[in-house]
Model the fold of this input.
Amino acid sequence: MVNELKNIEKISIKKFQEDLISWFKAEQRDLPWRKDQDPYKVWVSEIMLQQTRVDTVIPYFNRFIEWFPTIEDLANANEEKVLKAWEGLGYYSRVRNLHSAVKEVNANYGGQVPDTPKEISTLKGVGPYTAGAILSIAYGVPEPAVDGNVMRVLSRILLIWEDIAKPSTRKVFENAVRQVISHDEPSAFNQALMELGALICTPTSPSCLLCPVRDHCQAFHEGVETKLPIKTKKNSQRSVDLAAIIVKDESGKILIHKRPENGLLANLWEFPNVELHQPFVMERAQISGLFRESFDMNIKLEKNIGQIEHIFSHLVWNIRLYIGTIDAEFLENDEWKFITLDEIEEHAFPVSFHKMLKLYKEYS
DNA sequence: AACACGTGGAT
DNA sequence: TATCCAAGTGT
Done:
């Protein structure tokens, strides 16, 4: 705490702001969410960019704004379409929270995104980073927007050795930003910090010789830029074995199941599946028994057509894929239905589903 | 505080 | 191949 205060004194804040912002104005990327400062579009882009690369986000952002051009359009959209717009982006709770928050803004804020830290922070999915990003970029409010880039860049410039993997560390950087942010151009300043982190001050091999604020950088001065930031590593992921089944009815439709509204891949559709706690001793008849226990359905597994691995951030799915049949008297409801291949376009599925579908098509 | 929560790309 | 990510938030 005392440490970074002292380091901030070592630099000329005014000159640092000028060097950083003029670089940003000259070198910033031409990105679709930078065409205007519509708070709604800034909001959508910031949610999409959470833990997600710019190159990945661009096509999703363009299509999302085509489908839902305004707050009112998104507020009135049905969830299936909204999830479909997010299909493949990951962290699906982001878009369910965004949908919920946009409905809130449409209903209780006259369709105007709130412009105060207190109000905007009450919106679902808007945490400290996103609040600061929207307030500064869309409204010019000098609030910190501390993401991974900002922590990396400032840890180097200000020689901050705290572990950025610790939740409490974000406050240290917010405090630092409050002391160096430009009150004339908070939008350009915050975006410049992130842009610098993305283009120059990268994690492994920063391009210090091209850096517009190299002269202000304590880490460069000390030759320790690649030692920062300090970030402890996370635990390894656990592995889960699953058996999934593709069932077709007499007209050739495939059976899908809607996942629970909370937790992993919430509200997305998938092929019926069960967890295999003893994967090496499970045979088709026993797995059929698991389906009966889990869903009270009489499913017969006819043939294993292969297996896929799907890696999440925190776990690994090893999925055995079967084809099979189900009793004719099976009833459809909100969670279970048969759909045509064309109707896949009207439902949102995780990437693992598409991997299985591809395997099935190759088998057929 | 620690962990759940996705995905595809970089090294 | 293994690991670490990339503009974090909710619980």
User: Anything to note?
Assistant: The two ends of chain A are 63 Å apart (CA to CA).
